[in-house]
Amino acid sequence: MSAVAPGGEELLAVRDLRVVFPGTRPEDAAVTGVSFAMNPGQTLGLVGESGSGKSTACLAIMGLLARGATVTGSITFRGTELVGLPERRLRPLRGKDIGLVYQDPMAALNPVKTIGAQLREPLRLHLGMSRKQADERAVELLDRVGIDAPRDKLRSFPHEFSGGMRQRVVIAMAVSCNPTLLIADEPTTALDVSVQAQVLELLSDLTTDLGIGLLIVSHDLSVVAGLADDVAVMRHGSVVEYGSVHQVFQRPAHPYTRDLLAVVRELEGDPVDAGGRP
Ligand SMILES: Nc1ncnc2c1ncn2[C@@H]1O[C@H](COP(=O)(O)OP(=O)(O)OP(=O)(O)O)[C@@H](O)[C@H]1O
Ligand SMILES: [Mg+2]
Question: Residues with Cβ within 5 Å of ion ligand 2?
Answer without folding.
Answer: 55
